[in-house]
Amino acid sequence: MKLIFAKSVEGRRGLRLPASDVPAAELPQELLREQSAELPEVSELDALRHFTLLGRQNMGVDTNFYPLGSCTMKYNPKINERLAALPGFTELHPMLAQLPEGEQYCQGALALLYECEKLLAQACGFADSTLQPMAGANGELTAIMMFAAYLKSKGETRRKVMLIPDSAHGTNPASAAVAGFTCREIASNEEGDLDIEELKKALNDEVAGIMLTTPNTLGFYNSSVAEVVALVHQAGGLAYCDGANLNAILGRIRPGDLGFDAMHINTHKTLSTPHGGGGPGSGPVCVAARLLPFLPQPKVHKNAEGLYSLSEDAPQSIGYIAPYYGNFSIIVRAYAYMLMCGGNGFQRISENAVLSANYVRERLAPWYEQKYERSCMHECVLSASRQSALGVNALDIAKALLDRGFHAPTIYFPLIVPEALMIEPTETESKQTLDEFCEAMIAIAKLAEENPEELKKAPLSTPVGRLDEVTAARQPLLRV
Ligand SMILES: *Cc1c(COP(=O)(O)O)cnc(C)c1O
pTM surpassing 0.70? Predict the structure, then answer.
């Protein structure tokens, strides 16, 4: 496909503005361009076709099954889009609530933020939440900064070590490091859970806390979570729940009830807001009572008359995390989705997500190795180790799935499973789709035995074939 620059024809216009009805102002000389900006000159139709065709080359949840483990690529109901597009939301100025008397013109938006914070806190068993963080990783950082502020307020500044299991998402150590902590890895045991004996050895008066993904990134629920949290608390540390896998326990387990001090929620995973291509997402953080004074500011307050306002009156707050109030339109979508599901709906989401993952796991068990043979939660981690002995690795299987109309699962993560294929079907896929996917995976496993070379050529049906990664890294072609 040609770049839009290659479609440019000198003088062609997509838009013509009416003649100005005010006198032209002279721009200062230093602001004027010396050369043309070289923007593509195309008609409205050229631009429309270009982007429509480009969009069709993509694989997305709206076009294909997308079992990308750890990412919860569920269907995003279109009603969320309708509500987020209401002019009362989209036409608000982001500074309105901060202007004198401005709050009266955005009571609806403030009410939505307030209610959404309370709903999330209630659903996860915490005292309150903040909607500011822009993504899961940003939520982790926010929470760990609150941990740091809390420890400082208690004079516990020697606590500089954050414990992180070896199965954790890479954002966990990154967030802890950015917040000023050093990370210590805790090994998993033979069942794929955090090893409690290893944890006990690591606990001392320098430990600031633990970051525990629940259920973990292998898709396992560790029945000793409450014990782990209690051990860390006894040692004077705080416990953080990486809540990216909330889809597995929604409506059934509240991490706050397990004793966690804070957790983040990926709205773009669990709460069905658009995800992919780098954003926009949102990573609200829930906190237990002892962290309330440290929540980011401003916060929405509701007075005795039921009027909402933004307040910055919290001297111990860690301050602003994101401009304005985070990704407001994503929050509108998450709020609409939560109201649509209700408590009972939440429970059915997690039940069906877990059922789907176990169905896929069972169907594929005769064909793909599993490092840990136990039932899973919302995702299952298979290994292509048997196929790799035949010369076909996880990457080849991922590419072969594209030719069969499926987005690839997550591969080579978690790092503790060799040739990992991490499959998360989510609750929004039908049994027919799951069956078609399993049949494609089985056909690929058979092909790996019969004709492994064939799989090395995949994908053949996509707009772009397999990239020559070495050449791309050594001789990148960054301009045309
Ligand atoms: C997705 C994910 C994150 C990071 O979330 P982003 O919104 O991508 O920043 C952190 N932890 C786990 C376990 C995840 O799956």
Answer: yes
